[in-house]
Structures are given as structure tokens and as C-alpha cells.
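FORM 7B: Structural annotation worksheet

SECTION A. Query
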Amino acid sequence: MRSSALLASNRRDIGHGDVLRTVRRSAMTVLAGLLMIAAWCFFWPDGSLIGGILVSIWSWLTPTPWLHDHIGPRVVEQGMNAAVFVPLTACLVLAFPHFRIWVWWILSALCSCSIELFQLLFLPGRVFDPVDAVFNSIGGILGSILGLMLLRRILRARARGDSRRAPVLGGRRRRVPGNGFRAASRSHRAQETREVRCGIPGLPGSRGRPHN
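SECTION B. Predicted structure
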């Protein structure tokens, strides 16, 4: 609830600030690369090649005999299934922050089931395994939570930056409800402009008389 309220209060700022625009573009760029890697992993027709890569990763992660005995290749495979979806959904949350987090949970489950169904119907060299879909979904859930946490940190850092740039009036920062410090800054600049114009003779709206 708290995170939803935070995002709801910042909906107007999402996509309009320079910082968030940069974050969204960066997330989309990273997402494009991750999608190509994930497509190769999930839709490569030769399952033996993917299996050989997983065995190599397992050997690298278990350099001692004790680890070899207690961590099997199947454990590493399921961990990799979850790990692939973590950065994907995290980048999706950062690239499209207007969606609710539960939308990404549902999409993760649907994509996971669709991948396994596609392998069953069109890739004879791959093995259909519902457990893979479960771990893919878990990775999607964890990735969406990670993306939401990063988004909250970005919004809070931006709010702190706005508060530091807010004008100080009477020893306190002036805050206007609704638009916050940004509206206060605009009001303060307009007031300074009126004061300057009133003090310079010859300008429209000035109180002084022009010198001859």
C-alpha cells in the first residue's frame, strides 16, 4: 500500500523529469539486449547445447567436491531459470512505471507458461518442464520487486534534490501543497521579477519615473 501510494503521488512526474526519462531510456536499452539473450536461451532448438552450457556453469560454481555432492546441475538450472527473469522484469518496471506491480506478476507467469508450451509444440530438441515455468515466474516476481525498489529510490532522490533547490523564506523552506517546492520556486521567482521591475525606471509596470 505504501509503495502504491508513493507511485500514485508521483504519477504526474513519471516520464516528464529529465532523470526519469534517462532511466526509462537506459532501461529500454538494457531490456533489448536482455530479450535477445533470453530468446536465445529459451528458443534455441538444440537442447544439448544449452545443457552443456549449464553443466559448465555448474562446474564453475562448484569448484570443490563437497559442493559437487550437495549442489547438483538441476539446482543450478532452476536457479538460472529464475535469474534470467529477474533483470527482465526489473527493466520492465523501470521502463514502464505506470503499470501496477501485480501486472508484471501475471505477465511473468503467462510468459513462463507460453515459453514451455512453445518448446513442447515447436522445439522437439527441448524438454517440456512445468517446474521451469514455476522458477521463471518466481524470478519475474523477484525482478518486479527489485525494479519497484529502484524506482522508489530514484523518486526519493529526486524529491530530496527538489527540496534542496527550494527557496528559503523566513528561515524555512516554503512548500505549496500540490506542486510542492517546484510551485514555491516559481512563485518566488515571479515575486523577485515584480520587485526588480518596480525598482527600474522606464520599464512597463515600474513605479519610478524615467530619467531624462
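SECTION C. Observations
The helical segments are 2-9, 18-43, 47-61, 65-70, 73-95, 101-122, 130-165, 180-199. The chain is about 75% helix and 0% strand.

SECTION D. Sign-off
Analyst initials: ____
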